[in-house]
Specification:
It contains 21 helices and 25 strands. It has 574 residues and is α/β, with parallel strands linked by helices. It has three domains: 1-133, Response regulator (Rossmann fold, 3-Layer(aba) Sandwich); 136-317, Alpha-Beta Plaits, CATH 3.30.70.270; 321-570, EAL domain (TIM Barrel). Strands 15, 16, 17, 18, 19, 20, 21, 22, 23, 24 and 25 form an eleven-stranded mixed beta sheet that branches. Strands 2-1-3-4-5 form a five-stranded parallel beta sheet, sandwiched between helices. The protein has a five-stranded mixed beta sheet with strand order 9-10-8-13-14, sandwiched between helices. Helix 11 (299-319) crosses helix 12.
Length: 574
């Protein structure tokens, strides 16, 4: 009987496609390529159940085909192995990928192992029967493979194990990427072998141990109470704490985080594995060498699940235009000839309700989705900006426009985003209106050299710059001398209690004196009462923003409360 070549779906851009091709034997597989960020096309391809033997996906900054593609894949075809290859490195990225169900994660210096990784996770075909069977062992550690481990767990759960209590453990090596990046793949492989032996040395013969992929291991303990499992895992932690990995002249101290899930026979394998993964994630949040027993009401896990939901919804909302812009006025305390305000973002739910940014921004920051959101805000803001100018030029008495737009730290670090931004700004630098970009103090300080370059390029395009959340970071005053900024937005935490907190008032007074000495304008956030306004004027602050002046309102209604402005001004095409 003829064997069927495994079907691989490769989701990547054109450049990465060529790199992937160089690391696998194309003659052994049926390769299909997909280069898209369209949610519907991805869903259509990923919905082909039992069609793909494995999915290989490029991880890219801000692109839909990242964690979101993994989440969609695990929703539609949960049993299909999913390999991430990434131009990015770092333990957090790998952890995010693996804890959300990736079979493996290959950092830039690990791409050469792609061929072996595919062989490890792919079903193999029986020569005589043409039937897919999983590889039973991990080629590196000699432990069970992920697919065989999952098969045995499913088998155990389908019948009585003979024990009232059992435990599933998920192990994750701390600082594995440090070893790989410092000493290379061979050193990383050696560390995996050592850790596998340490785990196995504490287990009974009846226990089932496997390498689940990259730097993760799994163990099924039959007949263990949770207390007995904790006793064993604590002994493993003790051994790891005293273990030093040596490679050439380098000595590494590594660690383990362990998730523990008690179970009986009436469970589903995929749910049990997910719970063990989540418990391991909670352990990692507490630091190196921690153990966490899974609890469904664990606040960290609930928060994590909520973030995963938003990580899936954000790209979908961008594609379906379910984000809307809001606007909150920033008022000069002695009046000015601008409609000056900050552009804010909201999301529409399925019923058209408004969802605040606190719901989705944390997940966007965690899963590197802020660049897409920032691009949406910039594009829509400049569209409105151009339309407004058409009316401004034909209607005398209309105020000039002054928009402030927030930029995330991820966008500020991305050279491609700067190119996008400069392209968007072309042709508007000579208009009478203004655009100001707000960057946070902590972001500017984190990479001061690039921040200086980023700011300079925007200034050359006619934009102004505000340093946001000033006072919340460190070394604030020193950096004011080097950054070419125009405004300092004083962190609202110092403003809201300024009437009663002497320390807050003293800090604000110091910031104002410094800004006046360097000809920087000041903006106070969280202005919520007339008393605060009067005090801000006394202190010499230039602008105020907060609920005392106005709550945020939809951007197209910018002039709704101005009786002197034509209705056309806020019914401009948008």
């Amino acid at each position: 009987m003829l064997q069927r070549s495994p079907n691989l779906l490769i989701i990547s851009d054109e450049k990465t496609k060529a790199e992937i091709d160089s690391h696998i034997n194309q003659a052994d597989y049926q390769l299909s390529y997909l280069e898209t960020q369209d949610h519907d096309i991805l869903r259509q391809q990923l919905s082909k159940k039992n069609h793909w033997d494995a999915i290989i996906c490029q991880m890219a900054d801000g692109a839909f085909y990242s964690i979101n593609t993994l989440l969609l894949s695990k929703h539609l075809t949960p049993e299909t192995p999913f390999i991430f290859i990434s131009h990015l490195s770092g333990e957090k990225i790998a952890v995010d990928a693996m804890k959300n169900g990736a079979s493996d994660f290959l950092a830039p210096n690990n791409w050469s192992s792609l061929g072996n990784t595919i062989l490890q996770i792919l079903p193999r075909q029986d020569q005589n029967l043409g039937v897919n069977q999983p590889h039973a062992t991990d080629y590196l550690t000699g432990l069970l493979s992920r697919s065989e481990f999952n098969r045995r767990l499913s088998e155990l759960l389908s019948v009585s194990t003979g024990f009232e209590e059992n435990v599933l453990c998920h192990f994750d090596i701390d600082s594995f990427d440090v070893v790989n990046e410092t000493s290379g793949n061979e050193a990383g492989d050696s560390l995996l072998q050592d850790v596998g032996k340490i785990i196995q040395s504490h287990l009974k013969k009846s226990d089932i141990a496997a390498r689940l992929g990259n730097d993760e291991f799994g163990v099924i303990m039959l007949g263990y109470t949770p207390e007995e499992a904790l006793n064993i895992t604590n002994k493993i932690i003790d051994t790891i704490e005293n273990y030093r990995f040596e490679w050439n002249e380098h000595i590494f101290q590594t660690g383990l985080c362990i998730g523990v899930v008690p179970f009986a026979s009436n469970r589903h394998a995929s749910i049990l594995l997910r719970e063990a993964n989540q418990a391991c994630f909670s352990a990692k949040q507490k630091g190196k060498n921690h153990i966490q027993i899974y609890h469904a009401d664990d606040s960290d896990l609930i928060k994590h699940d909520e973030e995963i939901k938003w990580a899936y919804l954000i790209p979908k909302a961008l594609e379906q235009n379910h984000f809307v812009l809001y606007y909150q006025p920033i008022l000069k305390l002695d009046g000015e000839d601008y409609y000056h305000g900050e552009v804010l973002i909201r999301m529409l739910d399925d019923q058209g309700g408004i969802l605040p940014p606190a719901n989705f921004i944390p997940a966007a920051e965690k899963y590197d989705l802020m660049i897409g959101i920032d691009k949406f805000v910039v594009q829509k803001t400049i569209e409105f900006y151009r339309h407004y100018h058409l009316f401004y030029s034909t209607q005398p008495g209309l105020k000039k426009l002054f928009f402030s737009v927030n930029l995330s730290s991820l966008s500020l670090r991305d050279g491609a985003f700067l190119d996008f931004l400069l392209e968007q700004l072309k042709g508007i630098e000579h208009l009478p209106h203004k655009i100001c970009f707000e960057i946070t103090e902590t972001c500017a300080i984190a990479d001061a050299d690039y921040a200086l370059y980023f700011i300079k390029m925007l200034k050359l395009s006619g934009c102004e710059i505000a340093l946001d959340d000033f006072g919340s970071g460190f070394a604030s005053f020193e950096y004011l001398k080097s950054l070419e900024i125009d405004y300092v937005k004083i962190d609202g935490s110092f403003i809201k209690n300024i009437m009663t907190d002497k320390m807050d008032r003293a800090i604000v007074e110091a910031i104002v004196r410094l800004c006046q000495a360097t000809n920087l304008k000041t903006i106070a956030e969280f202005v919520e009462s007339k008393d605060i306004v009067d005090l801000l004027k006394t202190l010499g602050i230039d602008y105020g923003q907060g609920y005392y002046f106005s709550k945020p309102f939809p951007l197209p209604n910018l002039h709704a409360n101005d009786a002197d402005v034509s209705v056309l001004a806020f019914n401009a095409p948008y």
